[in-house]
């Protein structure tokens, strides 16, 4: 429909995203015009200020948004309780990841001196000796975070696709900027880019099919067409096969971003090859954003076809939990193991998606936030374990033998994070698993929960194996364990992760009470207060 009426835009409700966007544009100008010696402090200060300001604005909006939520820009963006929660979580996790990104040891950060130089070439060596650094990392992080924020709040498929690309393109670049093992880092970036391009193609084709069925891209209008049996060319019915194929292809794109089986193959290679601070950002913020978008799409646009897509999610969730748990047992690299761990946890969250109700949404929201803090803390520890003084990170698990004796605080923090991943009581991981499994049981998905519990037992084996390795194994004489001194930024990231893991495990009530609709609250449009 063509209209001459300009859209009504509430800039206050868009302020968090506009703040991050404005900071990203300003960061590009700083990169272009600021003196080289002043770029890093300017970029770091600008990025930190933008993330903090956006989070404050998000918190302030909680009281000004109607209980039923609202939509902006002709329905393209939704602002409601789930959107604000996901955006707040993304901003906090991005700020913690920024601590790891900004950390420097011996005058070096985690990023290549000159990404455009051929790895091992004289040009790269010259830039390294000259102390060159990639301050372009900061605007790229800002634009990636902007995409994450919009991804969770998108209320039509075109906005969702734009947010997907705004989030993904900076991450493709950031994955190839590791200072160490440059060829491996570049290989990871190429794999991520190619597989991401394929998934985006499936996703866009799925959007086209859904549009063909409904004649609309807005979630509310798609839902209305589903209720009516079709829209546009299929108003009389007969378009259900087109809709189901569209749902499947849209699901491919979203399940790729969360790393669910069989769309998970990019995760181990990318997590291992990317700079560890960027891996931490992806394993936390990107996962929250991807699930935020997936939940909104399947609960609002496709909510009335839950009986049609629920079997697909059942199969994907079971494959994700079982296959990733089994393969993780064989891993000998800590980052690859944590990548497969991320895949398993995606399967756990999918059990809440199967529930397709308010309890499932609340469980998924808590799980994602708790997992985000824990995984950033774990990757922060990974940045400190080195092959030798001034050397690269010690990814091979055998290098971690004896860490509990040489660095008891570091080993203790990692043990806490691993126990949370395993779902041990008094950690946030236990509460998160209990919340998603309880929602699945209430929805009748008991067999799925049984598979989840068994998968949890398998994952507990390889988490405990690392703890045993750190405390009860002697390091090889020719390969002693070495840890870098934790700087203030990395130490803060580990401390925040550990504190959140314990607090959310011991006293989760305040968070859960605000996620689960209270008795007497008016049900809002769709499951769990998503607005249309």
Q: Could you characterize what this model shows?
A:
InterPro entries: NADH-Q_OxRdtase_suN/2, ND/Mrp_TM. This protein has helices spanning 15-33, 36-61, 81-102, 122-129, 137-153, 157-174, 182-214, 219-228, 240-258, 266-273, 276-301, 306-329, 334-355, 358-382, 403-406, 408-422, 428-442, 446-472, 488-506, 509-515; strands spanning 70-72, 77-79, 385-386, 482-483. It is mainly α. The strands form 2 sheets. A two-stranded antiparallel ribbon has the order 1-2. A hairpin with a 4-residue loop joins β1 (70-72) and β2 (77-79). α13 (334-355) packs parallel to α17 and α16 (408-422) crosses α19. The model is unreliable at 519-528 (pLDDT under 50).
Structure keywords:
single chain, 532 residues, mainly alpha, two-stranded antiparallel ribbon, globular
């Amino acid at each position: 429909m063509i209209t001459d009426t300009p859209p009504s835009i509430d800039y206050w409700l868009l302020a968090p995203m506009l703040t991050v966007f404005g900071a990203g544009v300003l960061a590009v100008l700083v990169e272009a015009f600021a003196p080289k010696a002043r770029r890093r402090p300017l970029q770091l200060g600008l990025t930190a200020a933008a993330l903090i300001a956006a989070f404050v604005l998000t918190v302030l909006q909680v009281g000004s948004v109607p209980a039923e939520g609202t939509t902006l820009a002709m329905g393209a963006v939704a602002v409601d309780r789930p959107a604000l929660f996901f955006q707040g979580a993304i901003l906090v996790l991005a700020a913690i990841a920024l601590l790891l990104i900004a950390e420097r040891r011996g005058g070096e950060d985690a990023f290549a001196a000159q990404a455009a130089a051929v790895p091992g070439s004289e040009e790269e060596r010259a830039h390294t000796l000259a102390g060159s650094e990639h301050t372009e990392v900061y605007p790229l992080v800002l634009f990636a975070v902007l995409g994450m924020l919009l991804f969770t709040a998108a209320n039509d498929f075109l906005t969702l696709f734009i947010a997907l690309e705004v989030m993904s393109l900076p991450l493709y670049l950031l994955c190839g900027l590791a200072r160490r093992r440059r060829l491996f880092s570049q290989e990871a970036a190429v794999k991520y880019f190619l597989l991401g391009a394929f998934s985006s193609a499936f996703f866009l084709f799925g959007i086209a099919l859904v549009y063909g069925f409904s004649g609309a891209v807005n979630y509310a209008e798609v839902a209305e067409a589903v209720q009516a049996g079709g829209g546009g060319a299929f108003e009389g019915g007969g378009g259900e096969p087109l809709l189901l194929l569209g749902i499947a292809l849209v699901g491919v794109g979203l399940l790729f971003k969360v790393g669910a089986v069989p769309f998970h193959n990019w995760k181990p290679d990318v997590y291992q090859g990317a700079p560890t601070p960027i891996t931490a950002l992806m394993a936390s913020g990107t996962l929250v954003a991807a699930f935020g978008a997936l939940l909104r799409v399947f609960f609002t646009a496709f909510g009335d076809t839950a009986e049609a897509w629920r079997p697909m999610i059942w199969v994907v969730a079971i494959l994700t939990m079982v296959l990733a748990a089994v393969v993780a047992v064989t891993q000998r690299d800590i980052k690859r193991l944590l990548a497969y761990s991320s895949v398993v946890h995606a399967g756990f969250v999918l059990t809440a998606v199967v529930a397709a109700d308010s309890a499932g949404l609340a469980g998924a929201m808590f799980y994602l936030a708790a997992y985000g803090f824990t995984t950033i803390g774990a990757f922060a520890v990974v940045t400190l374990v080195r092959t030798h003084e001034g050397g690269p990170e010690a990814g091979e698990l055998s290098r971690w033998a004896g860490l509990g004796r040489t660095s008891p605080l570091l080993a203790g923090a990692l043990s806490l994070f691993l126990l949370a991943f395993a779902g041990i009581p008094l950690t946030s991981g236990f509460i998160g698993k209990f919340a998603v499994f309880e929602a699945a049981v209430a929805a009748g998905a008991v067999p799925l929960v049984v598979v989840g519990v068994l998968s949890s037992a398998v994952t507990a084996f390889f988490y405990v194996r690392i703890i045993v390795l750190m405390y009860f194994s002697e390091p090889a004489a020719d390969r002693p364990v070495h840890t870098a001194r934790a700087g203030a930024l990395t130490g803060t990231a580990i401390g925040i992760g550990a504190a959140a893991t314990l607090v959310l495990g011991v006293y989760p009530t305040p968070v859960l009470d605000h996620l689960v609709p209270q008795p007497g609250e008016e049900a809002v449009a769709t499951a769990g207060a998503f607005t249309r």
